Amino acid sequence: MLQRIHHVAVIASDYARSRRFYTEVLGLRVMAENYRAARESWKLDLALPDGGQVELFSFPSPPPRPSTPEACGARHLCFAVADVAAAKAALEAKGQAVEPIRVDEYTGKRFTFLPDPDGLPIELYEA
């Protein structure tokens, strides 16, 4: 029945800061951007090369994340990359802090993490 992930929704505490992170730092392409006056909310649709999407929202005074990845619910957002070391270097060249590269003990694949502006863990996993 399920075919693939269509989108992941992220709520930002500072819309402009998160918009810059997802578009300029991570390089996602803007598909649509709309201000919803009734909700005092922005909605930004961002495209991944495989057709997947990230929806970035703003809302007045959203509560902070309860904790780091071990809170119940979604743990982190993961993007596949061809070369983790190259992706890490490109992000660091833009001033983004990225954790050291690790190796998945079960698959042998390399991965790393970085935080989005609100502390949402973002994983880069070598495909």
Distance between the termini: 24 Å
Structural class by secondary-structure content: alpha/beta
Strands of the widest sheet, in order across it, are 1-4-3-2
What string, H for helix and E for strand, traces the elements in order?
A: EHEEEEHEEE
What proportion strand?
A: 35-45%
Which blocks of ≥5 consecutive residues have pLDDT under 50?
none
Total helical elements: 2
Cα-atom Rg, whole angstroms?
A: 15 Å
Major pleated sheet: 4 strands, mixed
Overall pLDDT metric: 90
Helical proportion?
A: 10-25%
Principal-axis shape: globular
Q: How many E strands?
A: 8
Tell me about this structure.
The protein has helices spanning 15-25, 84-93, and strands spanning 7-12, 29-36, 41-47, 53-58, 77-81, 102-103, 110-115, 121-126. By secondary structure, it is an alpha/beta fold. It has two helices and eight strands.
Structural descriptors:
2 helices; 8 strands; single chain; four-stranded mixed sheet; alpha/beta
Describe the structure concisely.
The chain is of the alpha/beta class and 127 residues long. Helix content is 17%, strand content 36%. The strands form 2 sheets. Strands 1-4-3-2 form a 4-stranded mixed beta sheet, covered by helices on one side. It has a 4-stranded mixed beta sheet with strand order 5-8-7-6, with helices on one face.
